[in-house]
Amino acid sequence: MSASQSAVRSRAEAVKVSRTFDWLILFTLFFVVLGGYHIHYMLTGGDWDFWTDWKDRRLWVTVAPIVSITFPAAVQSVLWWRYRLPFGAVMCVLGLLLGEWVNRYLNFWGWTYFPVNFCFPSNLMPGAIVLDAVLMLSGSMTVTAVVGGMAWGLLFYPGNWPIIAPLHVPVEYNGMMMTLADLQGYHYVRTGTPEYIRMVEKGTLRTFGKDVAPVSAFFSAFVSILIYFLWHFFGKWFGGTSFTQSV
Amino acid sequence: MAATTESVRADAAEAPLLNKRNMFLGATLYVVFYAWVRWYEGVYGWSAGLDSFAPEFETYWMNFLYIEFVLEVITAGLLWGYLWKSRDRKVMSITPREELRRHMTHWTWLVMYGIAIYYGASYFTEQDGTWHQTIVRDTDFTPSHIIEFYLSYPIYIITGGACFLYAKTRLPTYQQGLHLQYMVAVLGPFMILPNVGLNEWGHTFWFMEELFVAPLHYGFVFFGWAALGVMGVVNTEVAAIAKLLKKDLA
Fold first, then answer.
1. Whole-angstrom Cα distance, residue A58 to residue A143?
2. How large is the greatest C-alpha to C-alpha distance in chain A, in angstroms?
3. Which of these, A52, A243, B154, B240, has the minimum number of CB atoms within 10 Å of its CB?
């Protein structure tokens, strides 16, 4: 093509074309990232996210933030560092939550008949907002990793507490002490997932009672910081525009 | 005055930069088709999909599998074959406006890829979790797998391949070689399908139950990351379109 020729005939048309591309890009990016993020999250933290009786004070709090900070860090590394768009983490989490909620309603409830208050997804939005806000205000990848990554891990349990608290009320059933969430799992039998592979809160940490969740959240925050660094650089590579001559 | 009128008429007769009708028709096709598939699962999953030795399983599920295999091979052959056969052999000499129009068409394909990836990687994959954690499987070809692995995954592979082929055969931007991140964005999710081999081998020989976070599934995770390659495609496209528009849009 000629270097001096423009593809558009006026500034107005250029703006219109540009806005059209914005929407096409946003739609595609949203759904492709949704697909990648969702398959990653459901297969690394999914079981803790699927069922309320897996949403304990220890492993759910530890695992979910660590495995979920990945895609937000990667997408931020492109949306902020190339375009100064401060919503990479929120976009990822909105996509993930959309994919999850559609599934929990139409499939977990609609196909296999589990009640939604037994299989609703975890809330990651508070951490995502803070992660984006820290990046926007600091403009620093390191500060975002350390402050934002730590907030991501620490905010997970408080962010979910209003939803999960009623299900962590203790109940006695057939002479056994359990939570209401455990009781849900007891009644809604998942035949393909035997009890022996259910990895929930166990071990000596449980004897410390009230300290379990904060300790787990703090450990999760620490690892989230490290994962943020790693995935920031993954994101940079995935955002590359290189060509190769052969495969 | 006459010249102006002619110019306006010429503009009006020209094909639109973005064919919105095609885009909405394409999106509707995916959504309506998958709504029908979901209806089919709802009706025949429970009534005919629990026992793979039952005759009704053969009727409603194995026949579905055979038919989709055939249709997918035909669709991929026709679509990819058409895109290759009708390639532009003088792609470097098209006008900037035609190039812009082709970028719009390319994005129509990418929008379809977004929809296809959503259904494959998100909708039908998580659905598989609740089905297999509820139903005890007695075959690798369960109702959930027949839809997820052998229908929704091939559909996004066919769509992704069409995106890549369209870009490679019609856009000057992609003539420098093979765009690495684009290949990753298309080939990575494609590799999820061969990884089904590992998944089924594991589930057949030592782990019949379903635990989604089991290491057996990490292959899917690794290849799922490849979807992030779409960011490289976005960056390439933004640079190409800004160059074509030659406008300061700030």
1. 27
2. 83
3. A243
